[in-house]
Amino acid sequence: MARGNFYTETGYFRSTTLPTFPYTIAGWFYLPASMTSGAVAGVQDEGGSRDMTGVFATGAGPVVFQAYELNGGATGGSVATATSNLNSLAWNHFCGVFDGDASRTIYFNGGNSATNTTNNGANQSLYDSIILGGRNIGGSQYVDGYLAEMGVWDVALSADDIASLAKGFSCHLVRQDALLHHIPGVRSDIFPVGDMAATDPIGTFPHPPIIGALPA
Question: What is the CATH code of the structural domain delimited by 2-193?
Answer without folding.
Answer: 2.60.120.200
